[in-house]
């Protein structure tokens, strides 16, 4: 990832997806990795930050939107963990217009791809930047591309793989970052380890990376010219294209990992930090007129209810 020392304002990201995809576990992983919590809760232990209501604990499922704020590399994020059960689908859809970006969480099962259609369609219709996180990758029974192929059938926008898995004895043990061209091996509940890329992994990386660049080139004539001329595009240009195409709604980047094992979450957080648009974007989308208007809304809420001034995501969720 290119160095970017520019500190950006608070952002609000929604976790959406069908029941059982692992959204609440993902929130737990994010909060633990970012230091917002000292211990990581679990659904089975009934001790998660979200789903604290008695009904949610009893059902072991989200029954309302859970809100948590944390910071990553000194930047603030409000995470909205939205319920996935069909009974609460409308609650989830109602909250989407106010977020800066959404993360659609799913399982690596092609047979469950159709369950994501309502979320992907609503996000596309509202032109909300969104990425796909294939959770529980350690339990994948087949090729990630098979799942991606089925998901593309229900996704209105092009899905773009940002990573490819590293397999060992039928289990995903790591990934290759296609933008950075680096291979990582998972370490349970710890940061992944960079390893040398060689052999079959290197060959697959070259093919997958070119496919990623081809999709980006659909929206960038200069990149298309570079590919046709066999000129390797600079890394900064690739990341700029990835960010712009996400924000403008051209593509849906795809990441994967395991929230339960905390695998791939740090890479996901880096992508959210660099590529999630700031509050001005959602303000313009909703016709609010920019950051000044949003700040006035925050101050009005603060004056009416008292207490501490919070991040924009807190107010937009209300």
User: Roughly what percent helix?
Assistant: 25-40%
Measured distance between first and last alpha carbons: 34 Å
Q: Can you identify the CATH class of the largest domain? A: Alpha Beta
Number of strands: 11
Low-confidence stretches: 300-309
Oligomer: single chain
Strand content: 15-25%
Arrangement of strands in the largest sheet: 2-3-1-4-5-11-6
Mean pLDDT: 86
What is the assigned CATH homologous superfamily of the largest domain?
P-loop containing nucleotide triphosphate hydrolases
Sheet of most strands: 7 strands, mixed
Global Rg: 19 Å
Indicate the CATH architecture of the largest domain: 3-Layer(aba) Sandwich
Domains (count): 2
Would you write up a description of this structure?
- The protein has 12 helices and 11 strands.
- With 318 residues, the protein is of the alpha/beta class.
- The chain has 2 domains: 11-277, Rossmann fold, CATH 3.40.50; 288-318.
- A 7-stranded mixed β-sheet has the order 2-3-1-4-5-11-6, with helices on both faces. Strands 7-8-9-10 form a 4-stranded antiparallel β-sheet, with helices on one face.
What descriptors fit this protein?
globular; 318 residues; four-stranded antiparallel sheet; alpha/beta; 38% helix; 12 helices
């Amino acid at each position: 990832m290119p160095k970017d020392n520019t500190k950006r304002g608070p952002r609000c990201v929604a976790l959406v997806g069908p029941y059982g995809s692992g959204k609440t576990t993902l929130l737990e992983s994010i909060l633990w990795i970012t230091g917002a919590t000292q211990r990581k809760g679990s659904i089975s232990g009934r001790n998660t930050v979200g789903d604290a209501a008695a009904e949610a604990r009893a059902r072991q499922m989200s029954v309302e939107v859970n809100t948590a704020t944390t910071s990553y590399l000194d930047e603030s994020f409000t995470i909205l963990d939205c319920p996935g059960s069909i009974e609460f689908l409308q609650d989830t859809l109602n909250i989407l217009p106010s977020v800066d970006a959404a993360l659609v969480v799913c399982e690596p099962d092609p047979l469950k791809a159709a369950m994501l259609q309502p979320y992907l369609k609503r996000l596309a219709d509202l032109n909300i930047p969104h990425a796909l996180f294939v959770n529980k990758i350690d339990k994948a029974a087949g090729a990630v591309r098979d799942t991606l192929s089925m998901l593309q059938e229900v996704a209105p926008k092009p899905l773009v793989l940002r990573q490819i898995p590293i397999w060992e004895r039928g289990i995903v043990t790591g990934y290759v970052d296609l933008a950075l061209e680096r291979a990582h091996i998972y370490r349970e509940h710890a940061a992944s380890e960079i390893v040398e890329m060689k052999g079959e992994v290197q060959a697959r990386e070259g093919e997958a990376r070119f496919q990623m660049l081809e999709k980006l080139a659909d929206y960038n004539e200069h990149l298309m010219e570079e590919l046709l001329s066999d000129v390797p595009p600079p890394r900064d240009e690739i990341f700029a294209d990835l960010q712009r195409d996400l924000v403008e709604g051209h593509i849906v980047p795809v990441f994967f990992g395991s929230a339960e094992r905390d695998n791939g979450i740090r890479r996901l957080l880096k992508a959210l930090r660099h590529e999630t648009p700031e509050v001005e974007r959602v303000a313009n989308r909703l016709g609010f007129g920019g950051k000044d208007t949003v700040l006035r809304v925050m101050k009005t809420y603060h004056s009416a209810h008292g207490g501490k001034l919070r991040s924009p995501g807190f107010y937009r969720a209300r």
